[in-house]
Amino acid sequence: MTEQNSPKAEAFLADWAVHSRFGAVEGTGGVERQAASAADGEQRKWFTRLLESHGFTVQRDAVGNQFGLLELVPGAPYVLTGSHMDSQPTAGRFDGAYGVMASAHACFRVADELRASGEQPRFNLAVVNWFNEEGSRFKPSMMGSSVFTGKLPLMDALATPDPHGVTVKDALDAIGERGGFEGLDVASYAEIHVQQGRSMEQDGITIGLVNATWGARKFEFRITGEQAHSGSTLMADRRDALLGAARLIVAARELVDEFEPGALHTACGEINVYPNSPVVVASEVQLLFDLRSSSSDVLTAAYARVMETVERVQREDRVQIEVVAEHSWDQNPYPEAGLELAREVAQQLGLTHDRVMTVAGHDSTNMKDEVPTVMLFVPSVDGISHNLKEFTREEDLLAGVDHLTGVVRRLAGGALVAD
Amino acid sequence: MTEQNSPKAEAFLADWAVHSRFGAVEGTGGVERQAASAADGEQRKWFTRLLESHGFTVQRDAVGNQFGLLELVPGAPYVLTGSHMDSQPTAGRFDGAYGVMASAHACFRVADELRASGEQPRFNLAVVNWFNEEGSRFKPSMMGSSVFTGKLPLMDALATPDPHGVTVKDALDAIGERGGFEGLDVASYAEIHVQQGRSMEQDGITIGLVNATWGARKFEFRITGEQAHSGSTLMADRRDALLGAARLIVAARELVDEFEPGALHTACGEINVYPNSPVVVASEVQLLFDLRSSSSDVLTAAYARVMETVERVQREDRVQIEVVAEHSWDQNPYPEAGLELAREVAQQLGLTHDRVMTVAGHDSTNMKDEVPTVMLFVPSVDGISHNLKEFTREEDLLAGVDHLTGVVRRLAGGALVAD
Question: Pick from B265, B275, B278: which is nearest to A288 by CB?
Answer without folding.
Answer: B278
